[in-house]
Amino acid sequence: MPPPGGKYLRGTIQGWNQVQFGIESYYVQEGKGHEYEDAIRQRRLSAEVTVAPTGQAALVGLRIE
C-alpha cells in the first residue's frame, strides 16, 4: 500500500531480511564488467535511480567515482 503522500519506492520481500526493487541487474558494455566489479569492492560505485509515481524503480545508470 502506498503511503498517503510523498515519493516512495515499491519493493518485494524476498526471504529473510531481503527486499528487491527491480533494479538488481544492470548490463554494462562488453569488456567493462571488471571495472565495475572493482569499483564495487572499493566502494566507488553509485547508482542513479528514478522512481515512477507508482513507486516502480528504474536504474538509469552507474557511476564510478
Radius of gyration: 14 Å
Mean pLDDT: 89
Structural class, from helix and strand content? alpha+beta
Biggest sheet descriptor: 2 strands, antiparallel
Instruction: List the helices and strands in order.
Output: EEHEE
Uncertain residue ranges: none
Structure write-up:
Strand 3 (45-51) and strand 4 (57-64) form a beta hairpin. The protein has a two-stranded antiparallel ribbon with strand order 1-2. A two-stranded antiparallel sheet has the order 3-4. The relative contact order is 0.24. The protein has one helix at residues 33-41, and strands at residues 12-13, 19-20, 45-51, 57-64. The protein has one helix and four strands, in the order E-E-H-E-E. With 65 residues, the protein is of the alpha+beta class. The termini are far apart.
Could you give the topology of this structure?
Layout (H helix, E strand, L loop, with lengths): L11 E2 L5 E2 L12 H9 L3 E7 L5 E8 L1
